[in-house]
Amino acid sequence: MEQSNTISLPVTVEKDIKDSFSVNLLNNQTLDSPISIRLKYNRIFLIKDGSGILYIDGAAYPVSGSEIFLLAKEQIFSFSKHSTLSGYELCFGDCFWEKTPASVNNCKAVLFNNTADNQHIPVPFSGYQNMDMLFNTLFLEHESEDYINKTDAMAAYLKVIMIKTANLNASLTKAYDNFEKQIYRQFLGLVQKQFHTTHDVSDFASQLNISTRKLSGICKRNSNKGPKDIISLQVITEAKRALQFSTKPVKEIAFELNFNSPEQFSHFFKKYTNFSPHLYRLDFVKIGM
């Protein structure tokens, strides 16, 4: 994975998907007209083979094959022109995920509440055939005629796929039953939902019923980052998206991200990027020309 500064594309918000769930078969599909899409649904790409580059929130991931890409809702992605893909594209909303048993909720949290760390998962040759079989079974089920409880059946297949995906990464499997990991995942989930309204570590610690010191220790042991850094990274990511892909004034972006003034936002943004919001936007526009 490497930082991308090579393209600038108009952003299209993902269209609504029936029943908040879809599975698409990709058979040597060539992308001749790439567009950037802001996701309303979580997404899993199982790539058997392919070529090109997948861009996710400004980071570039070469596509080669025998791999999985995880994309969470609100992320922005696109493929480079003439990228080719063979495999499957699985999309699901949180409302569909609620149909899966509660026992597997930790699995989704591990994979999607910190997607940046799990964006790309190589699939060993020995395990790809099994993953392909699972996706193909789900695809055939999705394409079959509707029947009572069909969505429940597909949710069950999704559960198995999520567990198998997590098991591909040994570091993720250790996270299921560890209480401290559960607190960490809950914190990541709260940050994703509430960074527009608060950046205060104590607010999140209070919701988790632990002290700020305890939360700090948990975050550092699980990510080598403090809770403030994790919150700031989420805010910076969203700020970059807004500056790159919208025409909103900096003042409006600042207030939407819960800053008291444009000056406070500018100081914060420059601290983490070495650019003022205005210069960052200008630089991005120049790159896309």
Outline the secondary-structure elements.
Layout: E1 2-3, E2 11-13, E3 21-31, E4 36-38, E5 42-51, E6 53-56, E7 59-62, E8 65-71, E9 76-79, E10 83-92, H1 94-97, H2 105-112, H3 115-118, E11 120-122, H4 125-143, H5 150-167, H6 170-173, H7 179-194, H8 201-207, H9 212-223, H10 227-245, H11 250-256, H12 262-273, H13 277-288
Parallel strand pairs: 2-4
Antiparallel strand pairs: 1-7, 3-10, 4-9, 5-8, 5-10, 6-7, 6-9, 8-11
Helix pairs in contact: 2-5, 4-5, 7-9, 11-12
Query: What's the β-strand tally?
Result: 11
> How big a fraction of the residues is strand?
15-25%
The CATH H-level superfamily of the largest domain is: Regulatory protein AraC
Which secondary-structure class do the elements indicate? alpha+beta
GO molecular function, one term: sequence-specific DNA binding
Pfam family, one: HTH_18
Protein name: Helix-turn-helix domain-containing protein
InterPro entries: Homeodomain-like_sf, HTH_AraC
